[in-house]
Structure formats: structure tokens, C-alpha cells
Write a structure and sequence with these properties.
Blueprint (H helix, E strand, L loop, with lengths): L1 H20 L4 H20 L10 H5 L7 H4 L12 H13 L3 H23 L1 H39 L3
Length: about 160
């Protein structure tokens, strides 16, 4: 969980600078993030399994002697908790935080949400046994639809700003 908090702090304090370095506006970034979230939401609604594998480690679940090099390249916290949704959220809102107080509130929100995610992971086994396979499938599809709707709104807002509609 510490890795997620550190990664998110990097997004908050350096994200806008990295975008500027590559000449990417926040609205372009919003659109790209929205498209990625839309794809995630659609895959959840359609209950598709992940097709992309980062490495042999993910596929086999076994770390071999030469795999230690690639393990350090992709932070373990990044794909799930510090992924595209977190990246877009933190950079979008950090750009709106111009004062120390507002950045502090954003940092507090990130830490609070990270703690909630940690609690959810601790209780995931209990919740999954309570819901059962059918309940998990239903909730996953509903959440996928909600994520897709949020993504469409992010894309629409960014398109309005890009084209000044």
C-alpha cells in the first residue's frame, strides 16, 4: 500500500510537469485516460479476461532467475491501484490545486482512499465468500457500466475543452 501512496504522490507533484515536458495538455491527457477507462469498463461489462500479459511472471506465476530484471521495471502497485484511473484523477485534480492547503487536501484524499483500498483487500475473502460467484459477476458488470459512464463523461468534457465547444 505504501508503494501506491508514493506512486500517487509522484503523480500529484510531478505529473503536470511530465505532461508539459512532452507537450501534452491536460485535456489531451483526460481524453486518453477516458478512452483507457472506457476500454476497462467495456471489458468488465462483457466479462472478458485480460488478454495482455506483461511478462512470463504474470503468465506462469513463477519467478525464474532471469525474471528479476523485468520485475523491477513494472512496479507491482502500478497496474491495479496506481493505474490509469488513478493517474488521470490525480493529475487532473493536482492541476486544479494551486495552494498548499488544496494540495494537502488532495494528499489526504489519496491517503484515505489508499487506506480504504487496503481495508477492502483485507476483507476481500470474506466479501467474496458472502457474494458468491454470481454476486461477484453481477457487481463486476454493474461497476464496469459505471466506469464506462464515467469514462464517457471524461472524454466528452475533454473534447469540449480541446475543441472549445
Amino acid at each position: 500500500m505504501f508503494a501506491v501512496i508514493v506512486l500517487t504522490m509522484v503523480y500529484i507533484f510531478l505529473g503536470t510537469s511530465v505532461l508539459r515536458l512532452f507537450g501534452i495538455t491536460i485535456h489531451d491527457f483526460q481524453a486518453a485516460g477516458g478512452i483507457i477507462l472506457l476500454l476497462i469498463g467495456i471489458s468488465m461489462v462483457l466479462a472478458k479476461e485480460k488478454q495482455a500479459k506483461i511478462s512470463k511472471i504474470e503468465e506462469d506465476g513463477v519467478i525464474e532467475k532471469n525474471d528479476w530484471k523485468t520485475l523491477g521495471i513494472v512496479p507491482l502497485a502500478m497496474p491495479i491501484l496506481g493505474g490509469p484511473g488513478t493517474l488521470v484523477f490525480t493529475i487532473m485534480y493536482s492541476q486544479e490545486c494551486n495552494t498548499f492547503e488544496s494540495k494537502s487536501i488532495l494528499v489526504g484524499i489519496v491517503i484515505g482512499l489508499s487506506l480504504l483500498a487496503w481495508i477492502a483487500m483485507l476483507t476481500a475473502d470474506i466479501i467474496s465468500r458472502y457474494l458468491g460467484k454470481t454476486g461477484q459477476t453481477i457487481i463486476s458488470r454493474i461497476m464496469g457500466l459505471i466506469i464506462a459512464a464515467i469514462a464517457v463523461q471524461i472524454i466528452a468534457d475533454s473534447i469540449k475543452m480541446i475543441f472549445k465547444i
